[in-house]
Amino acid sequence: MKKLMLEGSAKEIGKQHGSQGKKEVLHSLETYEKLFYGYKQISWKEARQFALDHLKAIEKYDYELIEEMEGVAEGAGVDFEDILALNARSEIALAGYKGSAFSDGCTAMAVCPPLMSDTILGQNWDWKGRQKDSLLVLKIKHDNESKPDISMVTEGGIIGKIGMNSAGLGICFNALLTDKKSNEVPIHLGLRGVLNSNSLGEAISKIKHGQMAGAASFLMGIDEGNGASNGMALNFEVSPFGIDSVGGTEGKLVHSNHLLSDVIKQNLRDMNEFRFDDSMIRKRRAEQLMDQAIASGQPITEETFKGWLSDTFNAPNSINHYENMLAPEHRRMETVFSIIMNLSKRKMLLCIGKPAEGSFEEISI
């Protein structure tokens, strides 16, 4: 797993990402050119043009994101439009979809007070298996002192994804396949907006009021330190029509890959044809595992999360997701990485590939 230490201005951070991660960036470009054609029969040239539709919204949202993507392109020796298309990949492939297909199959979980004193987030990221060769751990230190340091797992060329920051704020992500999108900010750049935030309130301000171009689940949390039980986790479904908080208040949250919010469903149609036999079962199974752990009276720790994320019930469509060889090639998904973040302890654990078959490595924050 390649780890990149990126420092400086937005442009410098991008150039370091692109040059040091050039192999991974080029691998991402190859993957998504095939995937866009498989999902929507569009060429890479057309995908780049679709991505440009979001440019004005991104410039207004945070111009440093533009500068960072320009730097990635320069460092990797590709066009800016190529990197923009990677960062708008969910809007191009999954949003505004008119047929039935399969989105990122991920299971995200969180525990926090009052259930326990620590706030812990974890998820499996299930996608194209070949993207294991595109993964990068980015450790970002901005020269803009208003932005926290970030530790993030991403695909080469994509500047926003899953991780945590030095303010104790972390985020997990589940894609949602829906029938509408807008030309606002791509959701991966919204993930980066959250990770650039110093508080939960600031993070929410980056995703509300229809700022996001597509639909997704953002499961986020923070531990502000200064004593026990000073953390919180919230789960927002974001969309071009606004956001809604989903899940309970008892200290546990689970999300997979289907819409939960009745508010969001008023404007968007869930197009995931496997929501009942895959996504819903994964969600219910994760909740069952959580309830069993709570009933046992044993403390919930990072080790507990490892067990949950390794679960193979209903394989191949299990939390630990296996590739379904009966599906068309472009729709075959499997667990690409598994991540656990103890926000209270500022601790990140990462497993490349399926957690049922691999081991977790601690990533310094």
What does this structure look like?
- This protein is an alpha+beta fold and 365 residues long.
- It has one domain (99-363): Penicillin V Acylase, Chain A (4-Layer Sandwich).
- 33% of the residues lie in helices and 24% in strands.
- It has twelve helices and 14 strands.
- The chain has helices at residues 10-20, 22-40, 44-52, 55-61, 63-76, 80-87, 89-93, 187-195, 200-205, 262-265, 275-296, 302-309, and strands at residues 2-8, 107-111, 120-127, 135-142, 150-155, 162-165, 169-175, 216-223, 231-239, 242-246, 252-255, 334-342, 347-352, 361-363.
- It has an eight-stranded mixed sheet with strand order 1-4-5-6-7-8-9-10. The chain has a six-stranded antiparallel sheet with strand order 11-2-3-12-13-14, covered by helices on one side.
- A hairpin with a 6-residue loop joins strand 5 and strand 6.
- Helix 3 packs across helix 6, helix 4 crosses helix 5 and helix 5 (63-76) crosses helix 6 (80-87).
- The model has no long low-confidence stretch (mean pLDDT 94).
Q: Given this structure, which CATH class is correct?
A: Alpha Beta
Fraction of helical residues: 25-40%
Poorly predicted residue ranges: none
Structural class: alpha+beta
Element pattern in H and E: EHHHHHHHEEEEEEHHEEEEHHHEEE
Number of domains: 1
Number of strands: 14
Overall, the morphology is globular
Query: What CATH architecture label applies?
Result: 4-Layer Sandwich
CATH domain fold name: Penicillin V Acylase, Chain A
Organism: Salirhabdus euzebyi
InterPro entries: C45_proenzyme-like (IPR047794), Peptidase_C45 (IPR047801), Peptidase_C45_hydrolase (IPR005079)
Protein name: Isopenicillin-N N-acyltransferase-like protein
Keywords: Acyltransferase, Transferase
